[in-house]
Automatic annotation (TrEMBL):
Its main location: membrane. GO terms for cellular component: plasma membrane. It comes from the Bacteria. It comes from Helicobacter jaachi. Pfam families: Na_H_antiport_2, Na_H_antiporter. InterPro entries: AA_Transporter-Related, Na/H_Antiport_NhaC-like_C, Na_H_antiport_N. It is a multi-pass membrane protein. Keywords: Cell membrane, Membrane, Transmembrane, Transmembrane helix. Residues 6-106 form the Putative Na+/H+ antiporter N-terminal domain. It is found in: Cell membrane. The keyword DNA-binding does not apply. This is Sodium:proton antiporter. Residues 161-448 form the Na+/H+ antiporter NhaC-like C-terminal domain.
Length: 455
């Protein structure tokens, strides 16, 4: 099978093209998912039918797989909606106004310190307090007026948030990073190459360094110029007072974080935090319906994008097109004896492995889910090409991480958009996905290739 006609390649490229043409992201992913199903042999029984019948059967089967696969992100979707309700409730209090007041006085016109501070706070959500994107809809919307005052290009802030959501788990083996590194270790061991977590940490810093370079390049070069936004109405800071509702809301936020860490469930954490706000008066009883509606307006679209993305990933996995793509690349190197010590073939192999990881992660929107898909082929392929164990670790880790930044279906891009577009002045594709793709995927590709050749 030609690589260019592979269902993964075609469907991901179509999805990206439709998004660039400003077709709704949700519709773009659905079209790409159905196309992936049409291009793959989903069932042997379909081949016996006529072209029209087989096409209809494939569409039906693809739709069924899409809906079935959506269950994989149901917990994420529910947690996003609950977080949206909490954010909507907080927006009706003066709680975040005090944060805005503090930042306005301490930062003044130091916009670069502000952006890098956002990146640092975002980093804490992956390792120190593993709450992932839970803080974004709560923290970022109240800060938009300050960003507007400082004339900060929100594309730089999107890059800062995505850096914090991705670089820590790529680099450090704690929090979500422990899950990511453990997945690499387990999948390599399952394919006959035992490694330790310390070995993984000893090379994955290369990926973190590449992302740090991308962050600094985005903040100080690409998006440093002032950018004007329409200033929305904000509450008067000097008239804000901490009252019962503010303290109750603050308690709800604390309970959200504590419950999420204690239970390991963002859904339970968000639910407990929301109920604490209701019970202790952070949300008035008669306002519960309007708060929930506000949460749905803020986060429901992103929740459904994540659901459909999980369905898209299910089609790609069940169709066999991912393995077919990897096998097609492996088939390029047919003469095994001649490539074991060939620098040229190792270079081409490294680039192709990283590009495959980029395509797969761009499609399914999760680096964690990409590792098990690619490791079964990457490990023997890397050994055949003569890569060291450290080089194989790096290739698998970066190939999995590639595409998480830049994917329209990734929570590393959907999360930043949910906060930065609270006033409808931030485009998901052009202001989050494209900037983060440029800032991080290009440096990761370069660093992964060079690192694999030198290790």
């Amino acid at each position: 099978m030609s690589i260019l006609t592979n269902g993964v390649v075609v469907s991901v490229l179509v999805m990206c093209l439709l998004c660039l043409l400003r077709l709704n992201v949700l519709l773009s992913i659905i079209i790409a998912a159905l196309l992936a199903g049409l291009l793959s042999p989903l069932s042997p029984q379909i081949i016996e039918s006529s072209i029209i019948e087989s096409t209809l059967q494939k569409l039906t089967l693809s739709a069924q797989m899409l809906i079935k696969g959506m269950a994989g992100n149901l917990d994420i979707a529910l947690s996003y909606i609950l977080l949206g309700a909490i954010a909507a409730a907080i927006s009706r209090t003066h709680l975040m106004t005090f944060l805005l007041s503090f930042l306005a006085k301490s930062i003044s016109n130091k916009k670069f310190i502000f952006i890098l501070s956002i990146a640092l706070i975002s980093c804490f959500s992956q390792n120190l307090i593993p709450i992932h994107i839970a803080f974004i809809p709560i923290l970022i919307p109240p800060l938009l007026s300050l960003m507007n005052r400082l004339k900060i290009d929100r594309r730089a802030v999107a890059c800062a948030l995505t850096f914090g959501l991705q670089a820590p788990y790529v680099t450090f083996g704690i929090g979500f990073g422990l899950i990511f590194h453990s997945t690499i270790r387990n999948q390599m061991e399952a394919n006959g190459v035992p490694v330790t977590l310390s070995q993984i940490a000893s090379v994955m810093w290369i990926g973190g360094a590449a992302m740090l370079f991308g962050l600094l390049f985005a903040v100080f070069v690409l998006y440093r110029a002032p950018r004007e936004y329409r200033q929305s109405k904000t509450s008067e800071i000097e008239n804000a007072k901490m009252g019962h509702r503010e303290y109750a809301s603050l308690f709800g936020i604390i309970m959200l974080f504590v419950a999420q860490i204690a239970t390991g469930s963002l859904v339970l954490g968000a639910f407990i935090g929301l109920m604490c706000m209701i019970i202790f008066g952070g949300i008035k009883w008669r306002q519960i319906d309007s708060i929930m509606e506000g949460g749905l307006k803020m986060m429901a679209f992103i929740a459904f994008v994540m659901l459909v993305a999980a369905g898209f990933g299910e089609i790609l996995r069940q169709s066999g097109e991912v393995n077919a793509l990897i096998n097609s690349v492996a088939g390029i190197f047919s003469d095994i004896d001649s490539i074991e010590s060939s620098f040229y073939h190792r270079l081409i192999g490294a680039i192709l492995m990283l590009v495959i990881g980029l395509l797969i992660t761009m499609g399914i929107g999760t680096s964690f889910g990409t590792i098990p898909i690619i490791a079964s082929i990457y490990v023997p392929f890397g050994v055949t090409l003569g890569f060291s164990i450290e080089a194989i670790i790096l290739l698998i880790g970066i190939a999995g991480a590639l595409g998480d930044a830049g994917s329209p279906a990734s929570d590393s891009t959907l999360g930043p958009t949910s906060g930065l577009n609270a006033d409808l002045q931030h485009n998901h594709i052009y202001d989050t996905c494209i900037p983060t793709f440029i800032a991080y995927n290009i440096p990761l590709l370069i660093a992964g290739t060079i690192g694999a050749m030198l290790l």
